[in-house]
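So, can you check what follows?
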Amino acid sequence: MKRIFTAFILSLCALTVLAGDPVGIREGNKIMGHVVEDGSEENIAYAAVLVVETGAGTTSNENGQFAFTELVPGKYTLRVTAMGYETMTKEVVVSKDYTAVVHFRLKSDNYVIDEVVVSANRNEISRKDAPVVVSVAALPLFEAVNSVDLAKSLNYVTGLRVENNCQNCGFPQVRINGLEGPYSQVLINSRPVVSALSGVYGLEQIPVNMIERVEVVRGGGSALFGANAVGGTVNIITKDPVSNSFSVTSNFAGYGGKTWEQSVGANVSLVSPDNKYGMAVYANYRNRNPYDHDGDGFSELGKLNLNTFGLRTYYRPTYNGRLGIEYHTTNELRRGGNKFDLQPHESDITEQTEHVINSGGVTYDHGWDGYRHKLSVFTSLQHIGRDSYYGAQRDPNAYGKTDDLTWVAGATYTWQISKLLFSPATFMSGVEYQENRLHDIMTGYDRDMRQDVRIGSAFLQNEWNARYFSLLLGLRMDKHNLIEKPIFSPRVNFLYKPLKDLQARLTWSTGFRAPQAYDEDLHVTAVGGEGVQIELADGLKEERSNSFSGSVDWTTRFGHWQANVLVEGFYTGLNNVFVLEDVGVNDYGHAIKERRNGAGARVYGANIDAKIAHGKQFSLQLGFTAQQSRYKQPETWTEVDGVALTTKRMMRTPDYYGYFTIMSSPVKRLDLSLSGTYTGSMIVPHYAGYIENDRLETTPDFFDLNFKAGYTFILHDHINLQLNAGVQNIFNSFQSDLDKGEFRDSGYFYGPTQPRTFFVGVKISQ
């Protein structure tokens, strides 16, 4: 009898679910739901279900079912996301007397065009409704291009290009809309804890198994995120626990038939049955032997040994509160040059760093009045201890030690207003305090540099959300201890959406780059026995930018096909551009360079982003950028025989670059991918040593093509085993005019960063 009664209740629930209406089940303060594919009505397992107002989350089980319990009566918004499907939201009313039952039918969306982002306005919002263009890179892309770190992934985001600026140390930097690395703000979970020191090698130190997704906003973003958000913002969202799952990956790669690299990663996620607490843990090991492309005994890719570990956890002490804690640690040994079996000072050239990085953060969110009001309090920090050697010709004085501490604390308040003047609105205000303390010592070069940067900030913004348009006005004030006056950064964003699948945007945003003595360029100057001290000029002003952009974003469906096209024009004007000029030598004979303000620069062009997909069987995505980066007046980049050599064109910036990815599943469980990047011609500085005099070189263009195939076996208890293999840089597109020997210019390095590479991998997951 009990079984019959249970079956009857479940049948009643199922019938009501199919109807999509709340049902009268005598168990209150609860939501039950079901997630299926629209059309086929097949259950969708492991879909992420979020209560927007509270932040509580869960996943659907293998039958597509989910539940939330112990809810306070009221109206809630449920948002469901699943890989390969459109995001869907529904409002549900929870009663103390009855269970609310809701049914989700998700439409196929291979590109997740309507995904949720946070980098547009610091609030979770649909990408379609975001006031600025936000590009997203996530797991499908990482796997398709066989990326093991963040640096290799960002080449496949429109408007971005990652380059390696040093044969010895492997210094990667990302350029956004043609502007070099220091003009890009890198965030971890929206917190600016990536300092000038960690920015040198940081892109390679972040493994992809740590990342949930990467959000990129092109153009000035200082009104929202503060200093250095000039060219754009890269926001790394780490993995949050949403379900009980695990994965283990291993990858083995051979570089040019000469050397190899191995990487192993693991992830575990655990969530309590009542969704009150959860934890996501990751670990990664990576080992790469040095690679010598031209056989001169000096590396083009340095030796790398990298270990990372981290976790992200949450606890809900009250129904309306959420406490989040995260921790990450990195241990890295990096070395380039020659004679790797000897001590650094016994080699002809060595650049070696040993990093120990510890970072973490605490966030507490609390909502009230049906989550119309929300307060977030946070603090994050990062500490770096680094031992280094940057030297040549068996120099015993080139050892150094650096200690770097960055921390930020603040609070934000968000108010959902039912109507403000002419439409509903979202108001946000906040305060932040950021501090960076760096101590860099090279005793042999008599360098003892201390840098203390302190920034106090306050910001506010209001976004009106009408039916056919939205308008965002924002303003931020930063007080920098090295700048006399406060820095004000406004922004205006307008979104016009006449149709569900058509959006047009106009944007004006500002940015600034704060002065500092230590920057990415300092470590290179020590190589070759040249000790360099960088000083700040009297009256040095911050760099300022004004960015303008306009875009049209269109999505359409025809049958089982889905397409999206984004066309964006952009212009960024830079004033008071930082330049380094020689001002003499100190008492020890080492060079003194002074950071001064130059005339300015202009960057303008267009981005095209196109996507087309046929269900899960085929998808194509491509991005292309045409742009120009020019100084307003010729800038001196070197002197030869007392004559200044100048250029109006920004160096290492091609006028044309782009990428494409093709993903296909011709048969079930077989995944194929083809990807490639194009880098146009550019000018690159080539300094004397191997050559007689400094000169500018015009590089050829490059095309880098990659292929990957993977097959997934279904094991017992929903465990998947994937075997994959492929080749990167199929045509072995690589620089042909490398300098050779100990007097080479290690910075004269351009084009694809690795040669033809064969790889095999395995992944076990649930």
Summary: The chain has a mean pLDDT of 87.
